[in-house]
Predict the structure.
Amino acid sequence: MRELIFYLLIIGAGTGGELCVTRAMKVVGEVKDFRPAAVMGIFARALRVSWMWIGLALMGTAFFALLAALSMENVSLVVPVTALSYAAGALGGKFFLGEQVTRRRWAGVLLVCIGVALVIMGRK
C-alpha cells in the first residue's frame, strides 16, 4: 500500500510539476537567444511566475517519492511503473494546457500502459 502511494505521488506530482513548468514557460515566452545574459533574463522572468514555483515544488515532491519507492522496490519495477506519467502527461496536456493530442499519441499512451501492466503482472 505504501508503494502505491509513492507511485501515485511520483506520477501525479511529477507530471503536475512538468505541466506547471510548461504553463510558466508559455507565460515567459519562447527562448530564442541563448547568450548567457539573455538566458539569465529568461531565468529571472521564469522565477517571477507562480506556476514555476508550484511546478518546482511538485517536481521536488515527486523526486523524494521516487527515492522512497526505490528504497522499497526494485528499480526494474519502479521505473516502468513511473512510465504511467506518459498517460498523465497526455491527459494533462489535453485538459490543463489545451493541447491537441492525436490518435497516434493516444495509441502510444495505450501501449505504454499495456507495458506497465505486463511489468506489474510479472512482479515477483
Notes: The chain has a mean pLDDT of 95. The radius of gyration is 17 Å. The chain has six helices and no strands. The CA atoms of residues 34 and 106 lie 34 Å apart.
